[in-house]
Design brief:
Helix content is 0%, strand content 49%. It is mainly beta. The chain is built from no helices and eleven strands.
């Protein structure tokens, strides 16, 4: 059974930092790209960041580029999202997701992911 469990969310003031973790189990972690998405109230779930299976390639939404960093640890089987210079508009429920074995479309497309975590809340106050 595939499990993705997010942690590390919470409340922070604008300009602050948070580091999200996504613990993965039940599958070959080193064989899948991994992504982070977020969903604010009343909005669609949107792409945040992606890291490929080997960790050699990353991609970010324009809104977080230069402020967020995605990484992965193969020993811990964990994907991280370091979030710096947080803004109130970063407030959302953040989801970790597993990329399909063969991602044929953009990694920003939710359909390219087959398993999702339960989400973790991030609140940034102004």
């Amino acid at each position: 059974q595939v499990y993705l469990v997010e942690s590390g969310g919470g409340w922070v003031q604008a300009g602050g930092s948070l580091k999200l973790s996504c613990a993965a189990s039940g599958f070959a972690f080193s064989s899948h790209g991994m992504g982070w998405f977020r969903q604010a109230p009343g909005k669609e779930r949107e792409f945040v960041a992606f890291i490929n299976w080997s960790g050699s390639s990353t991609s970010y939404a324009n809104s977080v580029k230069g402020r967020f960093t995605i990484s992965r640890d193969y020993v811990e089987r964990t994907v991280y999202l370091q979030m710096d210079s947080l803004k109130p508009e970063d407030s959302a429920l953040y989801y970790c997701a597993r990329g399909r074995p063969r991602m044929v479309d953009s990694f920003a497309n939710r359909e390219e992911y087959d398993y999702w975590g339960q989400g973790i809340q991030v609140i940034v106050s102004s």
